[in-house]
Task: structure prediction
Amino acid sequence: MGRPKKENGMSATDYKREFNEKTYDRLAGYVKRGKKDRYKAAAAAMGCSVNKFMEQAMDKLAAEVLGEEPPEE
Result:
């Protein structure tokens, strides 16, 4: 049966999936049990998503390792 298609023949889910594939690179990682909740709490305290929190942390560390200035937020 499936979902109904929009006028352009693409469902909203298909559109979002295509947009994300064109716009973003995907990273997946594993952390020790219990760290996820810690990162979620830290992200919430900063008022951002876990994804944004992790991206900012990785940008900061990458800049440090590569001897660069961290990117502007």
In short: Residues 12-66 form one domain. The longest helix spans residues 50-66. The chain has a mean pLDDT of 90. The two ends are 44 Å apart (CA to CA).
